[in-house]
């Protein structure tokens, strides 16, 4: 899928900066750097705030945000001596801070200490970064117009009116938003309702001027001008709420010539509905946490872990495919989970103490708490688990899907957009319990969860593609369709030589869409916003 970039604005401020100037206070500015192919590249620089140790910068940085990438940022604060906006050799370094864009977005506001060279604290200096989503796809508007007592432009019949709605661009040019149908032979026309996105109506700026022109249709294209009026979406909502949504339709030529001229009729806004559509960032910035669970295949087909040909072989110098996939996906998910604890499960092994086969055991062998501290904790649990289990079979994944689904179902009952679950299944073969797996996925499609399956090794994964609903709707064995496509299947070998970033990109690209689809279907708004997703707010912006 094409990556979907959201635009995020970053605003910066600092507190308690070091004072490097002997006679006055520092003159700080901040440089923003972004990592690209391992190199730090300067994206831009704030203005210089003169003589301040607690500057609040007015310069706003706009950056593209991709959920499926780790986007590393670095902020460097300088006491500036050269001309504003340019770095110069004499600038004094007052401290820097590194983080990911995901961390800023997930917390909305990040305050961190500034560090000098070699990781020393720069006194009590801190930098605060505030993020705001400006992607602007905020929904769509349903409008319905009618008119009264329009001027009659035709000799032997009444006018045939139609209406054109334009938005006024920044250069004062007019951009057509919508043209109604023609209502024949009628001075009191009622036009059909229509829908437009908020971005095409007013570029998501509710105070942007809108211009309406009313014409008498002429089949040769020489339409007669009846009249016009100007308004804004903000005004439309206000007058509609107050029950006075009517504008005089004025012909400026007549107005100039005739002092007694009032109007050429009136246009009435008969209906206005605003459907709010939320973005992935709206949910994340509303405090929605993403919980990450990894499930690892410990079936015998992986090969004896002590043998270097095994998919589970631990080479001290080169992580195996299981570890590569786990780390590249987990690194991204961890930014969106405040406690940084991840559930790690195994399936298809005989486990101590009785060595019975289990299809949903905790790889840290703590059935009361299967969570590990951070991605590193999962890696260590996996490495410690290998020598203690006996690889066995079959490859049954339905029990683990059902286990995560039970947790997601409890979350669903809260009726809030607060927790979403991602299950990463790493397997070396086609699942044995295909019917049960399809049933479990169809049930899970109604819950706040997504499933990512990474096929490790060289098995024939053709049958696994069925689970990924890209080629049509997945159905349970009884024929019940999945409510939404929640499975993404990726064979690791196709990305074997790609960077971890490319793997994560491929694996996680569909997650934002799946999150939005789930909450929109449930009619749940991001936390902190009252109007549910997709709900109509008559004439009012939530």
TrEMBL record:
Protein name: Copine-7
Gene source species: Macaca mulatta
Entry keyword set: Calcium, Cell membrane, Cytoplasm, Membrane, Metal-binding, Nucleus, Repeat
Keyword Nucleus annotated: yes
Lineage of origin: Eukaryota, Metazoa, Chordata, Craniata, Vertebrata
PANTHER family given in the database record: COPINE, COPINE-7
Subcellular location, record wording: Cell membrane; Cytoplasm; Nucleus
Molecular function in Gene Ontology: calcium-dependent phospholipid binding; metal ion binding
Ranges of residues in domain C2: 1-114, 121-248
Function summary: Calcium-dependent phospholipid-binding protein that may play a role in calcium-mediated intracellular processes.
The keyword Zinc is assigned to this record: no
Domain VWFA: 291-490
Family statement drawn from the similarity comment of this UniProt entry: Belongs to the copine family.
Gene assigned in the entry: CPNE7
GO cellular component term of the entry, any: cytoplasm
A Pfam family assignment: Copine
Database matches in Gene3D superfamilies: C2 domain, von Willebrand factor, type A domain
């Amino acid at each position: 899928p094409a990556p979907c970039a959201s635009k995020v604005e970053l605003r910066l401020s600092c507190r308690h900066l070091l004072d490097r100037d002997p006679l006055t206070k520092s003159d700080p500015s901040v440089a923003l750097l972004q990592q690209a192919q391992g190199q730090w590249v300067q994206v831009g620089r704030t203005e210089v705030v003169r003589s301040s140790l607690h500057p609040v910068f007015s310069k706003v940085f706009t950056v593209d945000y991709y959920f499926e990438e780790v986007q590393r940022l670095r902020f460097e604060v300088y006491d500036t001596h050269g001309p504003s906006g340019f770095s110069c050799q004499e600038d004094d370094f007052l401290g820097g801070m590194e983080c990911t864009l995901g961390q800023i977005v997930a917390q909305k506001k990040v305050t961190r200490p500034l560090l000098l060279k070699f990781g020393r604290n720069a006194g009590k200096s801190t930098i605060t970064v505030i993020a705001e989503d400006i992607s602007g796809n905020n929904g769509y508007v349903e409008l319905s117009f009618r008119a009264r007592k329009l001027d009659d432009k035709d000799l032997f019949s009444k006018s045939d009116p139609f209406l054109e709605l334009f938005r006024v661009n920044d250069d004062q040019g007019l951009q057509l938003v919508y043209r109604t149908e023609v209502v024949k032979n009628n001075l009191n026309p009622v036009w059909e309702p229509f829908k437009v996105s908020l971005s095409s109506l007013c570029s998501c700026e509710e105070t942007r001027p809108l211009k309406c022109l009313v014409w008498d249709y002429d089949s040769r294209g020489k339409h007669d001008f009846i009249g016009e009026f100007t308004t804004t979406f903000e005004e439309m909502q206000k007058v509609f709420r107050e029950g006075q949504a009517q504008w005089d339709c004025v012909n400026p030529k007549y107005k100039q010539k005739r002092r007694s001229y009032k109007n050429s009729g009136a246009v009435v806004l008969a209906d206005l509905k605003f459907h709010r559509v939320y973005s992935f960032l709206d949910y994340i910035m509303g405090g929605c946490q993403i919980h990450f669970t990894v499930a690892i295949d410990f079936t015998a087909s992986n090969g004896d872990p002590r043998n270097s040909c095994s998919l589970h072989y631990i080479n001290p110098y080169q992580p195996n495919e299981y570890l590569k996939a786990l780390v590249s996906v987990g690194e991204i998910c961890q930014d969106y989970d405040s406690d940084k604890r991840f559930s790690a499960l195994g399936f298809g092994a005989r486990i101590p103490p009785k060595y019975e086969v289990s299809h949903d055991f905790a790889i840290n062998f703590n059935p009361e708490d299967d969570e590990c501290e951070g991605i590193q904790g999962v890696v260590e649990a996996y490495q410690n688990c290998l020598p203690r289990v006996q690889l066995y079979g079959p490859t049954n994944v339905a029990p683990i899907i059902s286990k995560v689904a039970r947790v997601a179902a409890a979350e669903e009952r809260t009726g809030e957009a607060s927790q979403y679950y991602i299950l990463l299944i790493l397997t070396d073969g086609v699942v044995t319990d295909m019917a049960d797996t399809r049933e479990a996925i169809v049930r899970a499609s109604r819950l706040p969860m997504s499933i990512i399956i990474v096929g490790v090794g060289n098995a024939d994964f053709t049958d696994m593609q069925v689970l990924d609903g890209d080629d049509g709707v997945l159905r349970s064995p009884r024929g019940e369709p999945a409510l939404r496509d929640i499975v993404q299947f990726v064979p690791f070998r196709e990305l074997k030589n790609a960077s971890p970033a490319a793997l994560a990109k491929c694996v996680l690209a569909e997650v934002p869409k799946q999150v939005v689809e789930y909450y929109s279907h449930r009619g749940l708004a991001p936390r902190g916003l009252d109007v549910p997703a997709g709900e109509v707010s008559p004439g009012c912006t939530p």
